[in-house]
Design brief:
By secondary structure, this protein is α/β, with parallel strands linked by helices. It has helices at residues 2-12, 29-33, 87-95, 117-136, 150-159, 190-194, 204-210, 249-260, 284-298; strands at residues 15-16, 42-45, 53-57, 65-71, 99-103, 138-148, 180-184, 235-240, 265-270.
Protein backbone atom coordinates (compact mmCIF):
# COMPACT_ATOMS: atom_id res chain seq x y z
CA UNK A 1 0.00 0.00 0.00
CA UNK A 2 2.83 2.40 0.88
CA UNK A 3 4.43 1.82 -2.53
CA UNK A 4 1.29 2.87 -4.40
CA UNK A 5 0.68 5.85 -2.13
CA UNK A 6 4.20 7.07 -2.78
CA UNK A 7 3.77 6.57 -6.50
CA UNK A 8 0.57 8.59 -6.49
CA UNK A 9 2.26 11.39 -4.60
CA UNK A 10 5.09 11.38 -7.12
CA UNK A 11 2.64 11.81 -9.98
CA UNK A 12 1.07 14.79 -8.26
CA UNK A 13 4.45 16.50 -7.93
CA UNK A 14 5.79 15.67 -11.39
CA UNK A 15 7.14 18.67 -13.26
CA UNK A 16 4.65 20.28 -15.66
CA UNK A 17 6.26 20.56 -19.07
CA UNK A 18 5.43 22.06 -22.47
CA UNK A 19 3.58 19.39 -24.42
CA UNK A 20 4.19 18.02 -27.86
CA UNK A 21 1.59 19.33 -30.34
CA UNK A 22 -1.41 16.98 -29.82
CA UNK A 23 -2.34 17.36 -33.48
CA UNK A 24 0.90 15.75 -34.60
CA UNK A 25 1.15 11.95 -34.67
CA UNK A 26 3.69 10.36 -32.38
CA UNK A 27 7.10 9.79 -33.95
CA UNK A 28 8.02 6.35 -35.25
CA UNK A 29 11.54 4.94 -35.42
CA UNK A 30 11.88 5.62 -39.18
CA UNK A 31 10.95 9.26 -38.50
CA UNK A 32 14.23 9.47 -36.62
CA UNK A 33 16.53 6.91 -38.22
CA UNK A 34 15.86 7.85 -41.85
CA UNK A 35 17.20 11.36 -41.31
CA UNK A 36 20.72 12.29 -42.37
CA UNK A 37 22.92 10.97 -39.59
CA UNK A 38 25.57 13.28 -38.09
CA UNK A 39 29.01 11.81 -37.41
CA UNK A 40 31.18 11.86 -34.27
CA UNK A 41 34.62 13.42 -34.14
CA UNK A 42 36.40 10.24 -33.09
CA UNK A 43 35.85 6.63 -32.10
CA UNK A 44 37.95 4.81 -29.51
CA UNK A 45 38.21 1.12 -28.62
CA UNK A 46 38.10 -0.05 -25.03
CA UNK A 47 38.14 -3.75 -25.96
CA UNK A 48 38.45 -6.09 -28.91
CA UNK A 49 34.77 -6.73 -29.65
CA UNK A 50 33.28 -4.62 -32.49
CA UNK A 51 30.82 -3.14 -29.98
CA UNK A 52 33.39 -2.25 -27.33
CA UNK A 53 33.67 1.28 -28.67
CA UNK A 54 32.94 4.86 -27.70
CA UNK A 55 32.10 7.71 -30.05
CA UNK A 56 33.44 11.09 -28.98
CA UNK A 57 31.58 14.28 -29.89
CA UNK A 58 33.67 17.40 -29.32
CA UNK A 59 32.45 20.99 -29.66
CA UNK A 60 34.43 23.64 -31.49
CA UNK A 61 36.88 25.55 -29.33
CA UNK A 62 39.69 24.83 -26.91
CA UNK A 63 37.81 23.38 -23.97
CA UNK A 64 37.84 21.88 -21.45
CA UNK A 65 34.30 20.94 -22.40
CA UNK A 66 31.51 19.91 -20.04
CA UNK A 67 30.96 16.23 -20.68
CA UNK A 68 27.96 13.92 -20.92
CA UNK A 69 28.23 10.13 -20.81
CA UNK A 70 25.48 8.81 -23.10
CA UNK A 71 24.04 5.28 -23.11
CA UNK A 72 21.78 3.90 -25.84
CA UNK A 73 18.84 1.57 -25.31
CA UNK A 74 17.42 -1.25 -27.40
CA UNK A 75 16.37 -3.70 -24.69
CA UNK A 76 20.03 -4.45 -23.87
CA UNK A 77 20.11 -6.22 -27.25
CA UNK A 78 22.70 -5.24 -29.86
CA UNK A 79 20.60 -6.37 -32.84
CA UNK A 80 17.88 -3.88 -31.82
CA UNK A 81 20.04 -0.79 -31.38
CA UNK A 82 23.59 0.44 -30.99
CA UNK A 83 25.20 3.74 -30.02
CA UNK A 84 24.41 5.38 -33.38
CA UNK A 85 20.75 5.67 -32.36
CA UNK A 86 21.89 8.55 -30.14
CA UNK A 87 23.76 10.44 -32.88
CA UNK A 88 21.12 13.12 -33.36
CA UNK A 89 20.97 14.22 -29.73
CA UNK A 90 24.75 13.81 -29.36
CA UNK A 91 25.18 16.23 -32.25
CA UNK A 92 22.66 18.61 -30.69
CA UNK A 93 24.67 18.72 -27.46
CA UNK A 94 27.91 19.19 -29.40
CA UNK A 95 26.38 22.18 -31.19
CA UNK A 96 25.53 23.64 -27.78
CA UNK A 97 29.09 23.37 -26.48
CA UNK A 98 28.86 20.08 -24.60
CA UNK A 99 31.07 17.07 -25.29
CA UNK A 100 29.47 13.63 -25.50
CA UNK A 101 31.04 10.29 -24.61
CA UNK A 102 28.57 7.99 -26.40
CA UNK A 103 29.25 4.42 -25.30
CA UNK A 104 28.45 1.04 -26.77
CA UNK A 105 28.45 -2.38 -25.12
CA UNK A 106 27.82 -6.05 -25.87
CA UNK A 107 24.13 -6.79 -25.62
CA UNK A 108 22.65 -10.04 -24.37
CA UNK A 109 22.72 -11.41 -27.92
CA UNK A 110 26.49 -10.95 -28.33
CA UNK A 111 29.20 -13.40 -27.22
CA UNK A 112 30.19 -12.28 -23.73
CA UNK A 113 27.05 -10.20 -23.25
CA UNK A 114 24.57 -10.58 -20.42
CA UNK A 115 26.03 -10.95 -16.93
CA UNK A 116 28.62 -9.76 -16.26
CA UNK A 117 29.64 -8.68 -19.78
CA UNK A 118 26.99 -6.07 -20.58
CA UNK A 119 27.56 -4.37 -17.23
CA UNK A 120 31.34 -4.73 -17.35
CA UNK A 121 31.38 -3.18 -20.82
CA UNK A 122 29.23 -0.25 -19.73
CA UNK A 123 31.51 0.35 -16.77
CA UNK A 124 34.73 0.02 -18.78
CA UNK A 125 33.43 2.34 -21.48
CA UNK A 126 32.55 4.99 -18.91
CA UNK A 127 35.85 4.64 -17.06
CA UNK A 128 37.77 5.02 -20.33
CA UNK A 129 36.67 8.66 -20.31
CA UNK A 130 39.38 9.42 -17.77
CA UNK A 131 42.08 8.02 -20.01
CA UNK A 132 41.05 10.05 -23.06
CA UNK A 133 39.93 13.24 -21.33
CA UNK A 134 43.19 15.11 -21.96
CA UNK A 135 43.30 14.13 -25.64
CA UNK A 136 39.83 15.51 -26.35
CA UNK A 137 39.85 18.36 -23.78
CA UNK A 138 37.03 16.88 -21.73
CA UNK A 139 36.17 18.17 -18.27
CA UNK A 140 35.66 15.19 -15.95
CA UNK A 141 35.18 17.15 -12.75
CA UNK A 142 31.39 16.98 -13.09
CA UNK A 143 30.07 14.31 -15.46
CA UNK A 144 26.38 13.81 -16.26
CA UNK A 145 25.17 10.37 -17.38
CA UNK A 146 22.10 10.13 -19.59
CA UNK A 147 20.48 7.07 -21.11
CA UNK A 148 17.42 6.14 -23.14
CA UNK A 149 15.15 3.15 -22.50
CA UNK A 150 17.39 0.23 -21.42
CA UNK A 151 20.19 2.79 -21.49
CA UNK A 152 18.28 4.75 -18.85
CA UNK A 153 18.74 1.79 -16.55
CA UNK A 154 22.45 1.63 -17.39
CA UNK A 155 22.96 5.38 -16.88
CA UNK A 156 21.42 5.17 -13.41
CA UNK A 157 23.44 2.01 -12.75
CA UNK A 158 26.65 3.86 -13.64
CA UNK A 159 25.75 6.46 -11.04
CA UNK A 160 25.10 3.68 -8.50
CA UNK A 161 28.36 1.74 -8.99
CA UNK A 162 29.83 3.00 -5.75
CA UNK A 163 27.15 1.00 -3.94
CA UNK A 164 27.94 -2.36 -5.55
CA UNK A 165 29.04 -4.91 -2.94
CA UNK A 166 32.72 -5.90 -2.87
CA UNK A 167 31.68 -9.51 -3.31
CA UNK A 168 30.25 -8.74 -6.76
CA UNK A 169 32.04 -9.47 -10.03
CA UNK A 170 31.03 -5.92 -10.99
CA UNK A 171 32.68 -4.21 -8.03
CA UNK A 172 35.38 -1.67 -8.84
CA UNK A 173 37.24 0.34 -6.27
CA UNK A 174 37.33 3.67 -8.12
CA UNK A 175 34.54 3.92 -10.70
CA UNK A 176 34.07 7.08 -12.73
CA UNK A 177 32.18 9.50 -10.52
CA UNK A 178 28.82 10.52 -11.96
CA UNK A 179 27.51 13.82 -10.60
CA UNK A 180 23.97 13.55 -12.00
CA UNK A 181 21.99 10.85 -13.81
CA UNK A 182 19.11 11.29 -16.26
CA UNK A 183 16.88 8.50 -17.54
CA UNK A 184 14.78 9.00 -20.68
CA UNK A 185 11.95 6.46 -20.65
CA UNK A 186 14.11 4.05 -18.70
CA UNK A 187 13.69 0.68 -17.01
CA UNK A 188 15.62 1.16 -13.75
CA UNK A 189 13.91 -1.63 -11.80
CA UNK A 190 14.84 -4.95 -13.43
CA UNK A 191 12.62 -6.96 -11.10
CA UNK A 192 9.62 -4.85 -12.05
CA UNK A 193 10.55 -5.16 -15.72
CA UNK A 194 10.74 -8.95 -15.43
CA UNK A 195 7.26 -8.95 -13.93
CA UNK A 196 5.69 -6.58 -16.47
CA UNK A 197 4.68 -8.27 -19.75
CA UNK A 198 3.34 -4.93 -21.03
CA UNK A 199 6.83 -3.41 -21.30
CA UNK A 200 8.12 -3.23 -24.85
CA UNK A 201 11.27 -5.24 -24.14
CA UNK A 202 9.38 -8.24 -22.82
CA UNK A 203 10.29 -10.20 -19.70
CA UNK A 204 12.65 -12.88 -21.06
CA UNK A 205 15.44 -10.41 -21.82
CA UNK A 206 15.90 -9.63 -18.12
CA UNK A 207 16.93 -13.22 -17.36
CA UNK A 208 19.44 -13.04 -20.20
CA UNK A 209 20.78 -9.80 -18.76
CA UNK A 210 21.12 -10.74 -15.09
CA UNK A 211 21.54 -14.53 -15.32
CA UNK A 212 19.20 -17.31 -14.33
CA UNK A 213 18.04 -17.55 -10.70
CA UNK A 214 20.33 -19.80 -8.69
CA UNK A 215 23.48 -18.80 -10.56
CA UNK A 216 24.09 -16.20 -7.84
CA UNK A 217 22.30 -15.81 -4.50
CA UNK A 218 20.52 -12.67 -5.75
CA UNK A 219 20.78 -11.79 -9.45
CA UNK A 220 19.41 -8.29 -8.82
CA UNK A 221 21.71 -7.27 -5.97
CA UNK A 222 24.32 -5.68 -8.25
CA UNK A 223 22.27 -5.12 -11.43
CA UNK A 224 18.93 -3.50 -10.53
CA UNK A 225 19.19 0.11 -9.40
CA UNK A 226 16.56 -0.01 -6.61
CA UNK A 227 18.68 -2.65 -4.86
CA UNK A 228 21.53 -0.12 -4.71
CA UNK A 229 19.54 2.79 -3.31
CA UNK A 230 20.33 5.28 -1.93
CA UNK A 231 22.97 6.13 -4.50
CA UNK A 232 23.57 9.68 -3.28
CA UNK A 233 23.40 11.15 -6.78
CA UNK A 234 20.62 13.47 -8.03
CA UNK A 235 18.41 11.73 -10.57
CA UNK A 236 15.89 12.95 -13.12
CA UNK A 237 13.51 10.77 -15.09
CA UNK A 238 11.89 12.13 -18.26
CA UNK A 239 8.95 10.05 -19.49
CA UNK A 240 6.37 10.43 -22.24
CA UNK A 241 2.75 10.16 -21.19
CA UNK A 242 1.93 8.19 -24.37
CA UNK A 243 5.02 5.96 -24.32
CA UNK A 244 3.77 2.53 -25.43
CA UNK A 245 7.13 0.84 -24.89
CA UNK A 246 7.90 1.85 -21.31
CA UNK A 247 4.85 2.08 -18.99
CA UNK A 248 4.79 5.31 -17.01
CA UNK A 249 4.63 3.39 -13.72
CA UNK A 250 8.25 2.33 -14.32
CA UNK A 251 9.15 5.95 -13.69
CA UNK A 252 6.69 6.76 -10.93
CA UNK A 253 7.46 3.66 -8.89
CA UNK A 254 11.20 4.11 -9.18
CA UNK A 255 11.10 7.77 -8.18
CA UNK A 256 8.94 6.86 -5.19
CA UNK A 257 11.43 4.19 -4.13
CA UNK A 258 14.43 6.51 -4.56
CA UNK A 259 12.78 9.26 -2.53
CA UNK A 260 11.79 6.82 0.18
CA UNK A 261 15.48 5.93 0.53
CA UNK A 262 16.47 9.60 0.78
CA UNK A 263 17.71 10.24 -2.76
CA UNK A 264 16.84 13.35 -4.73
CA UNK A 265 14.82 12.02 -7.66
CA UNK A 266 12.34 13.88 -9.84
CA UNK A 267 9.91 12.77 -12.53
CA UNK A 268 9.21 14.92 -15.60
CA UNK A 269 6.22 13.75 -17.62
CA UNK A 270 5.77 15.16 -21.13
CA UNK A 271 2.26 15.05 -22.58
CA UNK A 272 1.55 13.80 -26.13
CA UNK A 273 4.97 12.16 -26.15
CA UNK A 274 5.96 8.59 -26.90
CA UNK A 275 9.29 6.75 -26.79
CA UNK A 276 11.03 8.09 -29.90
CA UNK A 277 10.43 11.74 -29.01
CA UNK A 278 12.73 11.33 -26.02
CA UNK A 279 15.78 11.23 -28.31
CA UNK A 280 14.60 13.44 -31.18
CA UNK A 281 16.32 16.85 -30.88
CA UNK A 282 13.35 18.99 -31.98
CA UNK A 283 10.90 17.78 -29.31
CA UNK A 284 9.78 19.28 -25.98
CA UNK A 285 10.94 16.08 -24.28
CA UNK A 286 14.51 16.52 -25.48
CA UNK A 287 14.38 20.24 -24.69
CA UNK A 288 13.56 19.29 -21.10
CA UNK A 289 16.34 16.71 -21.00
CA UNK A 290 18.84 19.24 -22.32
CA UNK A 291 17.68 21.79 -19.75
CA UNK A 292 18.33 19.24 -17.02
CA UNK A 293 21.78 18.45 -18.44
CA UNK A 294 22.76 22.12 -18.58
CA UNK A 295 21.55 22.71 -15.01
CA UNK A 296 23.45 19.68 -13.70
CA UNK A 297 26.68 20.65 -15.45
CA UNK A 298 26.44 24.22 -14.16
CA UNK A 299 26.43 23.26 -10.48
Amino acid sequence: MLRFALAAATLLTATALPAQDPQKPLLTWPDLTERAKPAPDATIDYGTDPYQKVDVWVPKGKGPFPTVVMVHGGCWTTSIADRTLMNWIADDLRRDGMAVWNIDYRGVDRPGGGYPGTFADTAAAADALRTSAHTYHLDTRRVVAIGHSAGGHLALWLAARGRIPKSSALYQRHPLKIAHAISLGGLPDLEATAGSPDNGCGVEVVAKLVGAPGVRPDVYADTSVPRLLPIGVPQDLVNGREDKIIPLRMGTDYVAAARAKGDRADLHVVEHTGHVELIAPETPAWAEAKRLIRAALAK
